[in-house]
Prior knowledge:
The structure holds two protein chains of two kinds. Chain A is an all-alpha fold. Chain A is 68% helix and 0% strand. Chain A has twelve helices and no strands. The longest helix of chain A is centred in the last third of the chain and has 32 residues, at 269-300. Residues 1-28 of chain A have low confidence and may be disordered. In chain B, α4 runs antiparallel to α10 (198-211). The relative contact order of chain B is 0.14. At the A-B interface, α2 and α9 of A face α3, α5 and α10 of B.
Amino acid sequence: MPPVLDDVHPPCPPPPDPPPVPPSRSGALPALRPAVGLYAAVGRGSFRRYATYRAATWSGALTNSVFGFFIAYTYRALWEVRPHLGGYDLSSALTYVWLGQAMLMPVAAMGGGIQDDLEARISNGDIAVDLYRPVDQQAWWLAADLGRAGYHLLSRGVLPLLVGGLFFRLRMPAGGLAEAALTWCGFLVSVLLAVTVSFSLRYMTSLTGFWLLDARGVRQVALVLGMFFSGFLLPLTLFPSTLGQISEHLPWAGMVQIPEDVFLQRRTGAALLTGLGLQLGWAALLLGAGRLVQRAAAAKVVVQGG
Amino acid sequence: MAETTDAPSVLPARLGALPSIWAALRAYLLVAGMWLRASLAYRTSFWLTMVGNGVTSALDFAVIAIMFLHTRALGGWTLPQVAFLYGTAGMTLGLADLAVGSLDQLGQRVRDGSVDTVLIRPAAALAQLCADRFALRRLGRVLQSALVLLWSVSRLHLDWTPGRVLVTLLLLVCGSVIFGSVFVAGGAFQFFAADAAEVQNSVTYGGSAMLQYPPTIYARELVRGVVYGVPLAFVNWLPAMYVLGLPDRLGLPGWFRFASPIAALLCATAAGLAWRAALRSYRSTGS
């Protein structure tokens, strides 16, 4: 029922260009401020690059909307039989569907984003050039992915949500002005963390290409785990009890389920903070693990001159 | 004597169509075989993708199963009945995807100009492009869907009359042809809109996702769209009503349940015409 797509590629419009801009501002020991400027520039470049492919954006938003319709109908059929299933009323459940479609591309829950570029550079050897650059690889790719996510949030995030709002009664953050504003802020922070968690997992997945030469298999496995445990297919509260409780604490929950619950105001006050804390914790842990993998991978590179 | 001189000029005209189909098939098999060998070069990855492919499509069924943990019927259909829809939708899409699914990467080739290389080769362009990056791993979805279909059949307790067996077999063939036609039409579309490849996903993968659930849960307009617009309802909804012996709550003509072959023929013809038109209007990017 969800856009489970057979190969890893269908849903991600693969902008064909080789990765971002050439780097290297100047000195070997960049101070902190120029470094931040550099990564901001990488992010902006990535944003603009994705913004170039307008037809891809429109057709992608259309696809997300079409899937939104199909899934929304199945949810409606279920929630009409079982109102308040899993703690969501019908309107919340429908919002869950459309918000899920809106977050699918920004969060890259099905993989993609920087993965296409990174894997291409690993398999054709260009990665050796990247390793020479006086930048931090992980930070570089994270900046590029955040730029991409920003663009996708504004285009393929907003459009399906508008379509969904037009045809279904969705639940927007309620309460007073302050409460709604707080919910929106919490949601945006949560999405930012969701992208970071997703990035850290995808980055490590792609780095397996250093050993396997072809990361597609691992990527497919990562896709399965991400789709199922993120709560993208169904809210995790609908899972059989033990499985549901475990999966709510796994990193993937931070990719879809937590931002959704923040938006639907099921996480407020302390629960909001623990949700964000869980995302932050996993992000830090996985980014750290990614650095170790990156170091091991870099040690493996053999440059064949010529 | 006169006959022998005539022969060479008559022969190609008479057998013209047939050898070209064989030649296209041969080209398809050669290109597909090449990609198969290439993908087997990375064996770990090949098996992981093959299994992963089946598991990914099994996730859809996991969702259905979880839904049925909370309810006994969805849109008035039971779990084995929905599983029949799921299995047939997955198998037909999977078979079409295996055979011609590579066409959804055509936009990429149009953009980078490598379609030109295909066109100058002395073999049918459609055959070459369908076999391009042939991926046997897509068999994962077909096998997984077949398992669910078998499970569903074992649970349905149907009286398997020859009519039901025939309609089920026809369903699998015609459904694959309908999905295959959508892939070809989508490929033709990418000649005009090279980076809008995703539009076709909403019909192929999206369509299959829709066909996994009973038509009764969807809005009437949507159902009408997949009967008279892109005739996906003929893939499995309509024949399934006959096989499962369910009443038609959609108010469609009764013979529509047996009309899948006609729908498949119409789809294939339309897709073929679209493909020819697209190929004729193609202009290289020049790169």
